[in-house]
User: Fold this.
Amino acid sequence: MSGKGLFSGIERVVKYLTNVLMALNLILILSSVFFRYVLKNPLVWSEELAKFLLVWTVFLAASTSIKNWDNLTVTFLTEKFSPKTSRIADMVIKTIAFVFIVFLFVLAMKSIPNVWSRERAPALGITMVIPQLGVIVGLSLMILQFIGLFVEIFRTEKTTKRSKL
Assistant:
């Protein structure tokens, strides 16, 4: 994929945000350990905030994994396929993964009204929508990256067919 365009721009922003969130999480956890064991005055909210930051980080980072298709794959069978069959199998796998992500997105969206005003984080006192939004934003970005992945696959297929003529 080229280094330009909407999907690459999204990836750059998400990578930056993910790095910032990971750094904040590391600082938070180290501070929490320092306060608990050195100062003997624990930060009661730190574990909860670290958990919420981790949710955001994981779901944001997953979208960049999809863009580059950097996920864990088992290629034992697909290596034995012909190139054409291998491409078809790859497309089927990506389509199944896309449908699964869309399904998760729909479930996450359905759960928001249940969480909106009722549930609060015990230590931080914030609405549970904030960590839930990490899931929704991450899944939205995954869907966008899947669309970009499919566009690139079709573009590549089109170019390959033209070059064979």
In short: Residues 129-164 form the longest helix (36 residues). The radius of gyration is 20 Å. DSSP finds four helices and no strands in the chain. Helices lie at 6-38, 46-68, 83-115, 129-164.
